[in-house]
Amino acid sequence: MSKTTEQGSLTFKIGGELEINRLGYGGMQLTGFGVWGDAPNRETAKKVLQLAVESGVNFIDTANSYGPDTNEKLIADALHPYPKGLIIATKGGFDRTGPNQWVINGDPERIRQAIDGSLQRLKLDHIDLWQLHRVDPEIPLEETLGPVVEAVQAGKIRHVGLSEVGIKDIERAEKVVPIVSVQNLYNLGNRKWEPILEYTIERGMAFIPWYPLASGPNKLASKIREIAEKHDATTSQIALAWLLKRAPNILLIPGTSSLDHLKENLAADQIVLSDEDFAALAS
């Protein structure tokens, strides 16, 4: 059953079949400093994940590089056996050498290991949405995606997405495997990927902005504050509400390690921005 409010549908079907609530959860913050190591307070981290699902979140985004590996294990420890309808999306394509260190690696064997490792850590028999974290400029994309195609054919992966890509990357990838989602940096203050968002709208793909809570440059501060006060909301809630109104294919994955902040984020879908509010923030 689709969830609809005045701002339109609050659900979206990934790949035209997996209906999810557009306000999801991103697990990256449930790690140590620099996205390295396990969550400092593992029990609280598990409670955050459990409360998210209890509150209606049925889309959780993670990656084998978060920790690395620890985030996927944490999700399984907190939520397995998974409730019916919960979609866990993960990613591969980064190696980690230390805190805040990210090394792109599109080597096919490394991708194969990432997929099998994610299945094991998440305790899944298949991954509903597997995303290539980055395109490796040193390795042909077709080679990188080879083991992904094999995993789809073997039933290990249901749908495939890409992260931080342009239109040419998407078109090249689609000659190898169907692409159902794009995860690029996009928020109220940084809209450089606007053309990609429009492309995904036209194609019926999901668009998953990472870093969605950024509320923009200082020149927007007074506008956001004014609109937030009008809605009795926080600036973060307004940033999320703006994205929900921006396009019906946008899926939000705000992350937090705080139970209170999680509740705040999840209340953003109750905020209905007027066209005037939206235009003021979009300017």
Report on the architecture of this protein.
- This is Aldo/keto reductase.
- It comes from Larkinella rosea.
- Keywords: Oxidoreductase.
- This protein is of the alpha/beta class and 283 residues long.
- The chain has one domain (9-215, 247-271): NADP-dependent oxidoreductase domain (TIM Barrel, Alpha-Beta Barrel), CATH 3.20.20.100.
- The chain is built from eleven helices and 13 strands.
- It has helices spanning 42-54, 70-79, 108-122, 141-144, 146-153, 167-174, 194-203, 218-230, 235-246, 259-266, 275-282, and strands spanning 4-5, 8-9, 11-14, 18-21, 25-26, 59-61, 87-92, 94-98, 101-104, 127-132, 157-163, 181-183, 206-207.
- Strand 6, helix 2 and strand 7 (87-92) form a beta-alpha-beta unit.
- The longest helix is centred in the middle third of the chain and has 15 residues, at 108-122.
- The two termini are 35 Å apart.
